[in-house]
Amino acid sequence: MRRYLDPLVQVLAPAVLVVAVGIWSTLVSSSNEIYFLNALVSVAIVVAIYVFIGNSGVLSFGQISFVAVGAFVAGIMTIPLESKTGVLPQLFPVLRDHTVGNLVSLLLAAGAGGLFAFAVGLPLMRLSGLAAGIATFAVLEVTHNILREWTKIGPGATTLSLVPETTDALQATLGALVVIGLAFLYQRSRLGRRLRASREDPAAARGVGVNVHRERLWAFTASGALAGFAGGLLVHLLGSITTEQVYLELTFVTLAMLVIGGLTSLWGAVVGALVVSGLDSFLTEAEQGVHVGFSIDLPQGTRLIFLGAIMAVVVIVRPSGLTGGREFRLVR
Amino acid sequence: MIYAVVDAQTLADAVGLGAVYALMAVGIGLVFGVLRLVNFAYGQLIMAGAYTLAFTSHWRVGWSIAACVVVVVALSLVMDRVVFRPLRGSSPAVMLVATFAIAFMLQAIALLVDIRDNTIGEIATSIAPLNQPTTVHGVEVRKITIVAVIVAAVALALLALLLTRTTIGLHMRAAATDFGTARLLGVQANRVIGFAVVLSGILAAIVSVILTVQFPFVGPDFALRDTIVVLVGVVVGGIDRLWTATLGGFSIGFATGVINGALPTEQTVFLPSAVFALVILVLLLRPAGLFAWGRGPVERV
Fold first, then answer.
1. Which residue of A lies nearest to B79 if distances are taken between CA atoms?
2. What are residue B134's DSSP bridge partners?
3. Alpha carbons B237 and B259: distance in angstroms, whole number
4. Inter-chain contacts counted by CB atoms under 8 A, chains A and B
5. I need a labelling partner for A265 at 20 to 30 A (CA). Which of A157, B17, B60, B231 fits?
6. What value of ipTM does the predicted structure carry?
7. In chain B, which residue's Cα lies nearest the Cα of A150?
8. Which chain B residues are within 8 Å of A317, Cβ to Cβ?
9. How many angstroms separate the CA of residue B151 from the nearest CA in chain A?
10. Per-residue confidence at B296, pLDDT binned at 50, 70, 90?
11. pTM listed for this prediction
């Protein structure tokens, strides 16, 4: 019985959490709804990053490149034709003269993210440790630079706007659920288990015939595809986006979410994303003054200090994250 | 077609930038050596020093610089005690995220200072005269460039003497090679780490003085970009050894200086891509570092 129950509980716990946040978002005022939807999209992004970093144990600062690519693909492909030629006249004709629906744009974003990740990962997955961290960071820099300067593929340094805002409570929840489900299937699969073995002990994994480079490449590609998909959700949530929004700050924040939740478990990725998003939203409101039993009114600008301090404290007190890097279990 | 003009002027500026980055690389490399920790918050130490210089602008220059050194060294000691010590032996990702959080927090505090003063930065003026150019063999060199190069050379020479000729230096080198074994042989962990942290803080203070003279406008993101570039340079050079890390820092500073000086702006839009593509290439060919000769030890079971 436990054999079927445990994995079921492991995937249901984060799913229930996400659905709860989704339902909650429909109960609050429309000005607060954005916090909840943001949190759900963060879950999608952090779980996508987890698929690579969590399973392989290799640090990557480059996964936000795939979020960026996904966001811009999904955004550009859904701007209505009649306004696209006006606002983005320099695009390649194939991008300029076609517009697709919401769902197709998300799939395109996932495809673009996955392809890009595969191309990048092919050489890069030979690296590990700090070299991998810096090389993937270099990928982020290159992606940001090209997206920012090449006006044939995007808006360049200006804002990409007029993107249909189709990520509502239902889509955000479903999107996060899809990413969680695929991440879970991957980590339970033969591929995922081989990669996790190489995370624990690369030499021993090689010894039993695991091709570490190939397994990492699979995970990197899957992570890139999911990140692209999450980027699509993000752009359809915001309605407009600049290259700066999918760059350093998002990289740091999402990585912090993953570490705070617990680097090595899906449950940790979901919990970390929700806790940090919730905290950030709460502090944003607290700067305006909120009432929770007693009233809290923080001075302007203190939100970031609290956020940084709380993140530091969590990391210092619980280096393995809030969940201890373990999946959710009913009985300890 | 890209036209590049590399004249003596550009070279002088590039050497100056390389010297500053080399100092930062040593500061980062020293702490990495004993703690295996990449201190992302190093730039915020420099930023704190720059704010100190800005707020003490009306003091006499010597006092202002002394205050800067005291603040930066104190801050790095606090950082070591509160953050680094509890995290000793944690995974690199955890330590890196902890220093992210600290960097984030220090930046937010600086932002709060700016909000309070209703400014978008502070101006440090007391040592600005050093930014005046002087002419050496027909080349206009800002005095601070000469100062930077001399200070860097002296600081690196002193450090080399310290590491090779003193007991604490020997302990630090031993700790950097194999901390566990060094402790077994009687090296006191806290003393060595504390020493490395103080040295790295002093270097950060020196860098903040030099950078503030060149860029007197101090904001919360002061030296942030420089730190990222230096971190890249340090890993590309080879973070496992101090001198390869230093050489990596100098090289990336020198290269940045030459490229920025030699190319007109409209030709440099895709330059970051080219530079970072080169970084990837170097890492693929020499993962242990460009200047690290020989293969690193491969763990076998």
1. A312
2. B141
3. 19
4. 137
5. B231
6. 0.86
7. B270
8. 86
9. 29
10. low
11. 0.89
